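Hi support team,

I've been running sequence recovery on a batch of backbones for a student project. Most finish fine, but this one hangs at about 90% for roughly twenty minutes before it completes. I'm not sure whether the input is malformed or the queue is just slow. I've pasted the structure tokens below so you can try to reproduce it. Let me know if you need the job ID as well.

Thanks,
M.K.
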């Protein structure tokens, strides 16, 4: 994102889609015994859920439709033409819809629960401060510093519902834990945020 000729971090980018994919598979391995087809669907949905995201321009519904259409178009040009592959692509497109924000529908299928929870867990990554800075840039939020940004982020997460056992457990661990390890993590997030603000 370019503002006044200066490139700024963004949130909805390839790094985010890759991170969501990794977290989603970690959750699915812990909580579910997905079939090979379900794993393929989850992978496609995660890797495409914010494809071509327009940052803060327009409603997220437009971003979702663009991502799904991009998935379908890329699949059409793929070497894989079997019905099995086409079914996975169609299912993945539907799974992506549960990531639209503001949330309009609760996930029901296990795969939907996994991607929804994974999509909310970016700030607990070791580089969570950069994700948080990118999100503030996109939404044009102006927290005074990293500490205020973390405080606002925690308020937002408290308003969200988690749907998987691991998602709920991770939320309680990272957001309500208060152990020295978790306090150090949030201090690191604040420092990363402030570092990118300089």
């Amino acid at each position: 994102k370019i503002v006044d000729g200066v490139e700024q971090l963004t949130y909805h980018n390839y790094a985010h889609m890759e991170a969501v994919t990794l977290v989603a598979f970690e959750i699915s391995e812990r909580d579910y015994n997905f079939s090979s087809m379900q794993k393929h669907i989850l992978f496609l949905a995660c890797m495409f859920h914010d494809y071509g995201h327009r940052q803060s321009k327009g409603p997220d519904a437009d971003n979702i439709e663009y991502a799904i259409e991009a998935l379908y178009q890329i699949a059409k040009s793929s070497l894989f033409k079997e019905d099995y592959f086409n079914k996975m692509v169609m299912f993945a497109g539907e799974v992506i819809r549960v990531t639209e924000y503001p949330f309009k529908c609760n996930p029901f299928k296990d795969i939907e629960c996994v991607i929804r929870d994974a999509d909310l867990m970016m700030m607990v990554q070791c580089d969570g401060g950069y994700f948080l800075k990118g999100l503030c840039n996109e939404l044009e939020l102006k927290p005074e510093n990293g500490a205020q940004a973390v405080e606002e982020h925690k308020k937002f997460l408290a308003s969200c519902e988690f749907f998987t056992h691991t998602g709920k457990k991770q939320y309680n661990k990272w957001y309500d834990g208060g152990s020295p390890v978790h306090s150090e993590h949030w201090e690191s997030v604040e420092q990363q945020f402030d570092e990118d603000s300089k």
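--
Follow-up from support: It reproduced on our side and the slowdown came from queue contention, not your input. The mean pLDDT is 92. No action needed from you.
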